[in-house]
Amino acid sequence: MVFGSTLIGTTEQGLVLPVFFYIIVIGLMGIVAIKTRNRLAIIGALFFILSDSILAWNKFVEPLSSSHILIMSTYYAAQYCIARSRL
C-alpha cells in the first residue's frame, strides 16, 4: 500500500490514521458535490481535492517545486467555485 508505506517508517507515523480518515472525508465531499449536479460545486470540490493532493504529495512523498503556488491557486479556485455555486 503506497499510502501506508509512505508514512510508515517516517517521523509522521502518528498521522497515518488521521490522514486516512481525512481522505475518506474529502472523498465523500467529492461524491456529495457530484450528487448535487451543480457544476460549480463539482468543479470546486475537484479543485479542493487537487489542492489537498498536491499538499499531501509535497509533504509525504517528495517536495514539489512551486508547490505553494500550486496549492494556493487550486485552493482559492476551489473556494471561489464553491462560494459561487450557492448563488
* Residues in helix, %: over 70%
Helix-and-strand structural type: mainly alpha
Low-pLDDT sequence parts = none
How many distinct helices? 4
Compute the separation of the termini in Å.
41 Å
Average predicted confidence as pLDDT: 88
Quaternary status of these chains? Answer: single chain
Number of strands: 0
Sheet-strand content, in percent, reads under 5%
Short description:
With 87 residues, the protein is mostly helical. The chain is 78% helix and 0% strand.
Notes on the protein architecture:
- This protein is an all-alpha fold.
- It has 4 helices and no strands.
Q: What's the arrangement of secondary structure elements?
A:
Blueprint: H1 2-7, H2 16-36, H3 39-61, H4 67-84
Features:
87 residues, 4 helices
